[in-house]
Amino acid sequence: MPPRRLVVDLSSQRPVWRPTETFMRALGDAAGAEWRVEPVSAPNDSDGDGGGVSPEAVAVAAGAEVYIGWGIPEAVIEAGRGTLRWVHTAAAGVSGSLTPALRGSGIVLTNSAGVHAEPIAEWVVGALLHFFRAMDVARRAQVERRWAKADFTGLPCTLREIAGSRVAVYGLGGIGRAVAQRLVALGAEVRAVRRRAALGGPGGVAVVGPERTAWVLEGAAALVVAAPLTGGTRAAIGAEQLALLADGAVVVNVSRGAIVDEAALLARLDSGKLRGAALDVFGVEPLPAEHPFWGHPRVLVHPHVAAVTPAYWAREAGLVLDNWARYREGRELVNVVDLGAGY
Predict the structure, then answer these.
(1) Could you confirm whether 130 is annotated as catalytic?
(2) C-alpha span between 169 and 64 (Å, rounded)
(3) pTM higher than 0.85, yes or no?
């Protein structure tokens, strides 16, 4: 009887997102005699939700039972029709993978939600401090070779602490939870929006459903956007929502650019009502060179790399190996994507 096949299509164009030898060896060791692990050597696109596809990947997917890639290309689903049972994306976002072919296939999709949480949450804290402690002001003064003590010591004092500040977290999945935990530990009052509010959140966090988003945002000193991109969250943060934040608030987006109305955000920044915006994601990536965010003095442009860490592959291996064992034993998988909800 031929071995069952698991395809690994993770040869990213970004070196940091290519699987390590340790990761591949662990998959091989877990395969045993019943399974064969087949890596795809052709480059794959790991940016955003992934979803790039090569002729090699399509050919190898034919007859495979399990596929692991950066997103799930429709061509792979078609090639594996009749044999594919489980597909896994090494990305957290899945909007690009929810194709008609996948929705109608009966194939189980899992993602890497939560694997990126730790480095992204650290970046969020750093981004908040960047504006709360006016590091942007210090950096501009350094470029000017100007000793800017007067910029920091006038009245009213514009520097702030995370401790005692109220922070709104929009989305309380793996990333949102990690952010909220850190902010609570630093003494912030955290309110969060979660689609299934009954599931609650970390200790010390007030969790409500999307219908109470206004309560979460009203008077907040900062907003952290960490929700997945779905039909319900697309353009969910617009001019009306931004106007609810406290004057001088900071907006941080580590989810997807399409959740925030960028024109409304820019207008709010230009009005002086926002202290700053730290953005790791954008509606169009790469961010076009002519976009006003690039030159804005109160915008921190970060090229969608908040998740980068040398610890990624160890965490991803833990998730994939656990799920593969569950799959072989007929147990329920973790991180199963709800195709209807979109995450």
Answers:
(1) no
(2) 40
(3) yes
Instruction: Express each pLDDT in 209-267 by its tens digit.
Output: 999 999 999 999 999 999 999 999 999 999 999 999 999 999 999 999 999 999 999 99
- Give the torsion through C-alpha atoms of 65, 16, 309, 110, to 10 deg: -20
Can you give the length of the chain in residues? 343
Of 131, 164, 138, 156, nearest to 249 (Cα)? 131
Residues 91 and 111: beta-carbon distance below 8 Å: yes
pLDDT tens column, 13-42: 999 999 999 999 999 999 999 999 999 999
Per-residue burial over 269-284, b if 16 or more Cβ lie within 10 Å, else e, is beeeebbbbbbbbbee
Residue 103 tokens read as 């929705």
CA distance 27 to 90: 14
Sorted by where each starts, the structural domains of the chain and their CATH numbers stand as 4-115+309-329 (3.40.50.720), 117-301 (3.40.50.720)
Strand ranges (E), 171-210: 189-193, 205-208
**218 catalytic, yes or no?**
no
Positions in the chain short of pLDDT 50: none
SS3 236: coil
> Is there a catalytic annotation at residue 4?
no
Catalytic residue among 81, 146, 240, 285: 285
Q: Given 116, 256, 275, 302, which residue is catalytic? A: 256
Distance CA(240)–CA(219), nearest Å, equals 13
Taking a C-beta distance cutoff of 8 angstroms, is the pair 116, 320 a contact? no
How buried is residue 27: exposed, middle or buried, by Cβ count under 10 Å (0-12/13-18/19+)?
Answer: buried
